[in-house]
Amino acid sequence: MNAPIIKKVLVDSGELRMKVAGLFQAVGVSPEHADQIAEVVVFADLRGVESHGVQFTPRYVRGIARGHLNPKPDIRVVHRRGAVAVVDADNGLGFLSARRAMKEAMAIAAEHGSGSVAVRNSNHFGPAAFYPMMALEAGMIGYATTDGPPHTVVWGSRRPVLSNDPVGWAFPTLEGLPIVVDTAFTGVKEKIRLAAQRGGTIPADWAVGPDGNPTTDPKVALEGYLLPIGQHKGSALIIANEVVCGALAGALFSFEVSPKLVMGADHHDSWKCGHFVQALDPGAFGDRDAFLRRTSELASALRNAPRAEGVQRIYMPGEIEAELSAQRLRDGLPLAVTTLEALDAVAREVGAPVPSATLATREMP
């Protein structure tokens, strides 16, 4: 069985960002915050991470319109001691509180060499890479992680009690192209969905069915839950992130968060989840230039390692995404027609201008 063809059109990313921001403004989000949210979701699409991009906008907008999320959160630092701080997100979207937390971490790191900030009472923050990459602007190392709704089993269990707790790292280099890690500790649900569309199978260590037993049937897996990568090792890494995002931040653990978004609801329910971000100033540890040289030497050595048969090029983490983003900024951003239709639908629901009415589109080559 062939996978269905998803029709896409090319749009200008800057214009799309304005249209997305307009939808958030229509439900009471300030122009500044609306633009910040739109920046992050379009950033995800530019880097090829559509699973965390514009397609989720209707759910966010409905979550605000229906009173589940705070359109005007009072995001504030509620605790500070030395090189650490805690931010309360006031039930706003995580795009805003994670950004505020990273700015706070960077300010602390400028003084102390490192800054660690925990966030509570927050919600989905989109692609994990965005916030560590903020630290690159100051020549710093950035880190971010989050918990969220339960859709992953702890190793040895039959029911979901964990999220996939994604992590992001960003490391500056001398050559200018940073090393950017953005990963999670489970398989990718989009790959399972694609296997279901094609009538194929999946590895038995990707997911369990609703009965809690491992399955190779992607359709059964879509009704069930994800397994941690690396069995008990991936499970342990998720648990570590649960501690810093939940207990340290004073936020909910994943098993306490509403699973409604994961279960396919058309809106983002209130999660009250936690994030944890860090900024590290390499100059506080010694010679900044020496650090940059060493990270560049690492990247060069790995790129030039002997390649396996059939491999044309070895990439550093984040390199493919950076090149794709540059291409899409130049040539246009592919946007699924179904996503554009979903944006139009939610615009009509909240009384906002319909994006497709004024968004210039071009056919894909």
UniProtKB/TrEMBL annotation:
Family from the record: Belongs to the LDH2/MDH2 oxidoreductase family.
Species assigned in the record: Methylibium petroleiphilum (strain ATCC BAA-1232 / LMG 22953 / PM1)
GO molecular function, one term: oxidoreductase activity
Gene3D superfamilies listed in its UniProt record: 1.10.1530.10, Hypothetical oxidoreductase yiak, domain 2 (3.30.1370.60)
Domain of life: Bacteria
Keywords annotated in UniProt: Oxidoreductase, Plasmid
SUPFAM superfamilies attached to this UniProt entry: L-sulfolactate dehydrogenase-like (SSF89733)
Keyword Oxidoreductase: yes
Protein name: L-sulfolactate dehydrogenase
Pfam families: Ldh_2
EC category name: oxidoreductase
